[in-house]
Design a protein that fits this description.
The complex is a heterotrimer of chains A (about 290), B (about 325) and C (about 325). Chain B has about 325 residues and is mainly α. Helices cover about 75% and strands about 0% of the residues of chain B. The mean pLDDT of chain C is about 85. The chains are: A mainly alpha (about 290), B mainly alpha (about 325), C alpha/beta (about 325). Chains A and B meet through helix 5, helix 6, helix 9, helix 10 and helix 11 of A and helix 1, helix 6, helix 7, helix 11 and helix 12 of B. The structure holds adenosine-5'-triphosphate and magnesium ion.
Chain lengths: ~290, ~325, ~325
């Protein structure tokens, strides 16, 4: 039953029914969708929502605990933490989305080629993936950003590279099992070029498992970007970013000013949690077999 | 057995080659001028040229690669710009601290995650199963650096039950005589229980932080794999033969379930070694992670390169160990591999 | 039948599985009896509940199973009320089982000798030092060539037939008084099938061990069994001594099964196959007689009223509204 759902285009009506079933059956997924929407709003309209200018420092109110004026308190320069968290959503989401999509496009292109042609293409692409996987991934990302220089673009590049193997493997496997399927043969006999067959007949099958991978990876990409910023790679102060904010708050936590690190850290956690729940939920929707 | 290890070792060679090439490329072939990089921001053009020649950067890329291999073979990872010290020596003295932390994190994760996963699998649908599912999803969502801070804040600042979360050993204790470089082991060898306890007290928070992060994938895998094995035919045979519940669960089910768990250990190590850097920063742990962060702050590239290479080699070795372990558990591997 | 109490008796046993897609009414009012030393065949097409019944007897069903009614007694012991620890004493020692797929039924990463030792250690007081010798004896009994060497083999190193021999050695290690053989020969080639069946029946005779032989091959059952029980969709529809069943089947399903079983005297194209499929056991409105939709003797009352049980002769029982009739000879 699961296989047919991915091969033949399932009626949208059925898909929608299934989505509704999963959503009502599993309120956690529904909650994750709601939270995701909320964070998306923050990312899109953050600068207009934020009550203060995220960069404006005011030393008269430095290191103030949460109050009615500053819900999440202020940091050592008197900047409003809530505003910084809201504005940072754009940057963190931006990094994650760009990185994940970059590795999605490149990874599935390489994976499709490897799965479709096999032979040398497969061996070379496989070796690339293996070489990336031979590093502890976060360490490789550190090495890349350190070599290329501290910038947001390089964080995106590094995150994209370390995610690449997952996409290559998933798409390679999907294409490989289908490359000799009847409908591919038929398309070939009808005179379609390899590129056309790959793009129109094989690639669509890769999408459903990729969706799950994307949403699981998104959380991981955010964690990675924040981790890199935390150790001083990539985004630089005074720009607002969750990882940096936690790093800035770290020095104060020992002396009891907990709010500086807590709120951005908790936000980061919640966002990643949302993506992971979403990934699990999507898996339930797209692949009912694996439900446990 | 030895033959299998050798064969695995041979299988790891392409990975090692790949790692060496990538670390080489990371410094030499990327945009930007490495000579300017190594010369520092205030260097004159002549100084940069001099360094270029000194580093062999005026030669062709393949030539440079050969030089790089020669240096590696003689154990030369270059010198740190800021301290002037050889990178290899520094990494060698700091590596045990990192390994001790990583291994303790792994042990903590294993002793909690695996029993929980087994428990969840033997009672599917129960509250403990749901709890495990929730924990597993929450666990991978934790930014390690944040959980570390939180633990330090709660255990040190609020509750006062742990020592100041800085370093491997409280300043009032002398470091135990170095045998392995692992304080826990060394203090035991020296029969110095005081130091052992102090080192353990310092270690527990960072190790728990690491452990929390990798618990999730381990628990998930344990549960899934146990569930699969428990519904397989040979478990039914074991039950039909009247073997006791514990015998069926441990000797029959668990040992088979271990196979996929051991396979996930590869991913777990990748996570562990990566988060290790973050945790070392949070707890001012004097391992190679802290070393590389200091180097990053001063744009000192040789230590970074040495660090990436060391971590990758450690990771390759750990994967090798995993392969061997798999072969020990699964008799089928020796034949097919 | 003699008046002595049967070794195993299953009475009006009903069992359901609760699944995501509904309740599976896997067994309903199943009754069978097995006397000491007797070989009883259970036949029926795939999905008729043969395996489920044998798992039910040993109480090794999975958690989704729910016993709704009935009683099972084995050698005077109430199996349904027994505690798990008591059941463990019975399993492997008194009742042993061999399974459908010998390859997957053995632990893939444990030496077969060790697997036999596990059973011996659980049920016998064999000394640790003698365990290995005893395990090798068990292997020798099932005529595995070179048992000393096979002792330390893993299942993947053996052929299917050899695995099934190991399964038999494992099952017979403690001299059980009842052996349940669940399709012991499916998946094996024809010559191996015959060899395995000969082995089982010979060992059973030697030890005067009762045997339940589960199969969908009526010809096989007729060759080895004293009595045959026919199952269909979770019901026992007919049970009779083998010769009697073949001479005068009373249930239309049995008659069709016999007609569709190839034998040397029957032309292959005169074989009648049974039309239709088993009903979906998840239905809540299963008819009283689960065969009636496929039956050419169906009458109006087949779907209503309790399924009658008729005894035609001692030991020949049929559950049918309109059984076949034979004129007296
Ligand atoms: N764990 C289970 N959960 C739900 N339904 C089950 C389960 N086990 C068995 N069943 C159902 O019980 C019915 C009887 O199955 P069983 O395995 O006993 O058939 P069988 O007669 O042994 O068939 P075969 O000849 O193929 O072995 C089937 O409809 C099956 O779908
Ligand atoms: Mg069966």
């Amino acid at each position: 039953m699961g296989a047919s759902a991915t091969i033949a285009a399932p009626g949208w009506r059925d898909t929608w029914k299934h989505v509704r079933y999963v959503a009502t059956d599993n309120p956690v997924t529904l909650g994750a969708f709601a939270l995701f929407g909320f964070f998306l709003l923050l990312a899109l309209f953050g600068p207009w929502i934020a009550p203060y200018d995220p960069l404006m420092s005011d030393t008269t109110v430095a290191l103030k605990p949460p109050s009615a004026a500053h819900w999440f308190g202020t940091d050592s320069l008197g900047r409003d933490i809530l505003s910084r968290i809201i504005v940072a959503a754009q940057l963190d989401f931006g990094i994650a989305v760009s990185a994940v999509f970059a590795s999605f496009f490149l990874g599935s292109a390489l994976g499709c080629l490897a799965g479709f042609y096999g032979g040398w293409a497969d061996r070379i692409i496989g070796r690339i993936a293996d070489t990336i996987m031979a590093f502890p991934l976060f360490v490789l990302a550190m090495g890349i950003v350190a070599a290329l220089g501290n910038s947001v673009a390089n964080i995106i590049l590094a995150t994209a590279i370390i995610n690449l193997p997952f996409y290559i493997r998933v798409s390679r496997a999907e294409v490989n099992v289908r490359r000799n399927a009847g409908y591919v043969e038929a398309a070939r006999l009808a005179g379609n070029s390899d590129a056309r067959i790959l793009a129109l007949h094989l690639f669509p099958n890769v999408l459903p498992p990729m969706m799950v991978q994307i949403s699981l990876n998104m959380g991981w990409a955010i964690l990675n970007a924040a981790g890199l910023s935390f150790i001083g790679l990539g985004v630089r102060p005074p720009q607002a970013e969750w990882g940096i904010m936690v790093a800035e708050g770290a020095t104060y936590i020992i002396s009891g000013e907990w709010w500086i690190a807590l709120f951005p850290g908790a936000t980061l956690m919640l966002v990643v949690f949302t993506f992971n729940l979403l990934g699990d939920g999507l898996r339930d929707i797209l692949d009912p077999r694996t439900r446990t | 057995m030895l033959k299998m290890i050798l064969r695995r070792l041979a299988g790891a060679i392409p990975n090692i080659v790949g790692v060496v090439i990538v670390t080489f490329l990371l410094t030499r072939a990327l945009p930007g001028d490495p000579a300017a990089y190594f010369a520092g921001p205030s260097a004159t053009t002549e100084a940069i040229e001099q360094i270029r020649a000194q580093l062999g950067l005026d030669k062709s890329l393949p030539h440079q690669f050969v030089l790089y291999l020669k240096e590696l073979a003689s154990g030369d990872l270059g010198n740190s710009l800021s301290t002037g010290q050889p990178v290899l020596a520094e990494i060698r003295t700091r590596l045990p601290a990192s390994l001790e932390l990583t291994l303790c994190g792994l042990v903590l994760a294993c002793v909690t995650a695996i029993p929980l996963g087994v428990l969840a699998a033997t009672r599917p649908g129960s509250w403990i199963d749901h709890l495990c599912r929730m924990l597993a999803t929450a666990g991978v969502s934790l930014p390690t650096f944040f959980t570390g801070l939180l633990l330090a804040y709660v255990c040190y600042f609020l509750l006062g039950i742990s020592p100041s979360p800085v370093g491997r050993l409280d300043v009032s204790f002398p470091a135990p005589a170095t045998v392995t470089g692992l304080y826990l082991v060394d203090s035991l060898i020296a029969r110095d229980m005081e130091t052992f306890r102090a080192a353990a007290a310092q270690l527990i928070l960072p190790a728990a932080t690491l452990g929390l992060f990798v618990m999730a994938p381990l628990m998930r895998m344990t549960r899934a794999s146990m569930l699969g094995v428990l519904s397989s035919d040979f478990i039914r045979t074991a039950r039909a033969s009247g073997l006791s519940g514990t015998k069926v669960l441990y000797t029959y089910a668990f040992r088979n379930a271990l196979l996929p768990i051991v396979t996930t250990l590869g991913m777990v190590f990748s996570f562990l070694l990566g988060s290790n850097v973050l945790v070392e920063k949070v707890f001012a742990w004097p391992g190679i992670g802290s070393y590389v962060i200091e180097a990053l702050v001063s744009s000192d590239y040789a230590p970074v390169q040495g660090f990436v290479l060391t971590m990758a080699l450690v990771y390759v070795m750990l994967n090798l160990a995993i392969d061997v372990m798999y072969g020990v558990i699964d008799p089928r591997v020796g034949i097919e591999g | 039948m003699n008046a002595e109490a049967p070794l195993l008796s299953v009475k009006d046993y009903s069992l359901e599985f609760r699944t995501r897609s509904g309740t599976v009414h896997a067994l309903e009012d199943v009754s069978i009896e097995v006397a000491r030393g007797e070989t009883v065949g259970i036949v029926g097409e795939s999905g008729s509940g043969k395996s489920v019944l044998s798992f039910g007897i040993l109480r090794i069903l999975d958690a989704a199973a729910d016993v709704r009614a009935g009683a099972i007694s084995f050698a005077g012991m109430d199996m349904l009320a027994a505690k798990e620890s008591a059941l463990q004493q019975v399993r492997g020692r008194e009742i042993a089982m061999i399974f459908q797929n010998p390859r997957t039924a053995l632990n893939p990463i444990r030496k077969i000798g060790r697997q036999i030792e596990d059973v011996l250690r659980t049920h016998t007081s064999t000394l640790q030092a003698d365990l290995k010798k005893k395990a090798i004896e068990c292997l020798a009994q099932v005529r595995i060539t070179d048992p000393e060497r096979r002792y330390s083999a893993y299942p993947f190193e053996l052929s299917g037939g050899q695995c099934q021999r190991v399964m038999i050695a494992l099952a017979l290690a403690c001299n059980p008084s009842l052996l349940i053989a669940d399709e012991p020969t499916t998946g094996l080639d024809v010559t191996t099938q015959a060899a395995i069946m000969e082995l089982v029946s010979e060992l059973a005779r030697e030890r005067s061990m009762a045997t339940i032989l589960i199969t969908h091959d009526l010809a096989l059952a007729s060759e080895y069994c004293d009595r045959i029980v026919v199952m269909h969709a979770g019901h026992v529809v007919e049970s009779a001594p083998t010769a009697r069943l073949f001479e005068r089947p009373r249930h239309p399903y049995t008659a069709r099964l016999i007609a569709s079983t190839p034998s040397p005297e029957v032309e292959i194209d005169s074989l009648a196959s049974i039309p239709g499929n088993l009903p979906d056991l998840r239905r809540n409105d299963l008819p009283k007689c689960r065969f009636h939709a496929r039956c050419d003797r169906a009458v109006a009352q087949c779907t209503v009223g309790p399924l009658p049980e008729a005894t035609f002769e001692p030991g020949h029982r049929v559950r049918c509204f309109n059984p076949l009739a034979y004129t007296a000879p």
